[in-house]
Amino acid sequence: MNPAPFRLERYFAVHEFTARYLMCSSDPESLSIADLLAFEPGSMEGLGRTWLGYTEYPGAPELRRELATLYESIDIDNLIVHTGAQEAIFSFVNSMLKAGDHMIVHMPSYQSHYSVAEALGVSVSPWRARESENWALDPGELEKLVRPETKAVLICAPHNPTGYLPDRERFDAVVDFARRRNLWLFSDEVYRGLEHDPAERLPAACDLYEKAISLGALSKSHGLAGLRVGWVATRDRDVLAGMSAFKDYLTISNSAPSEYLAAIAVRNTSALIERNMSIIRNNLAVLDTFFARYHEILEWRRPSAGTVAFPRLKRGGAERFCAEVLERTGVLLLPSTLLDHGNEHVRVGLGRRNMPDVLQILENYLRERGTK
Description:
This protein is α/β, with parallel strands linked by helices. The chain has two domains: 126 residues, Aspartate Aminotransferase, domain 1 (Alpha-Beta Complex); 236 residues, Type I PLP-dependent aspartate aminotransferase-like (Major domain) (Aspartate Aminotransferase, domain 2). Helix content is 40%, strand content 15%. The longest helix is centred in the C-terminal third of the chain and has 25 residues. Keywords: Aminotransferase, Transferase. Pfam families: Aminotran_1_2 (PF00155). One of its GO terms (molecular function) is pyridoxal phosphate binding. This is Aminotransferase.
């Protein structure tokens, strides 16, 4: 197995820790261990007592008990904790799919959603979001994409990079399609909880469908990427058995200190999400004003959820634009070429406190370039 180079991650490997300003990050503002421990008195002592031996392969029982509270139909035996969401995606594809199978993938997408499968010999059909409809998906297209060898549908909701969130009717239509065709529904829900209107939050797919696999992580919703904690929640016994066995060839078990800290984070989910959403709401208001001023060169489709947006350049290529901005200002943006979606869009991150200041640097550059 030899997956294609992960273009987005190679881009970050070069620029993420050398660029002066990040304006394309998908993870929100993080916090220190001390800040996290402050949520619970006595937790510093608890961290000090954490045993540094192997942990249980599906995750510490305490952490899984807390994670189960995020769902309606899931208990600790329906969860497998992984070292980040990436490991969980890799494990699902390698344990449940094989060469000659086919899967349908929501596009544009995070590259591991499809590259891991393609490297395994799985055929992938893109299910493309419709930009003209605010990046909506059309469930009716699934019947045109399905094949006799189709085994899975993969969606990302809330969506990276567009910030699209399906309404309940569309989401239920996807679930109904998967059920009628007896397909696995792999639902990347790492941005769940960051809906800009909480009333629009969707149920977890695993609560609606017995063959759905809900992917979660603390990197996005909780702003704790450094803990490297992700998980899958599913009622499908074959998936649980297959992914458990495959994990023996990956990390086997997770980091004990990370699992201890993760349990604190999950117990304080509401506070951490509200912290992140206050930053996002403020940044969205600033971006609305910015894009109104620069509507002649940038088309703004306001996201409905999550920490990213995907504006379109009305002239010029995104790759060249991002390179020039980085060279002239030190501001890192992400061109859509790294997301297999042409050369017209730029991913913008909404979750960092310094975004208004960085946006001002970008605006100064646009003015100097004479694009207003």
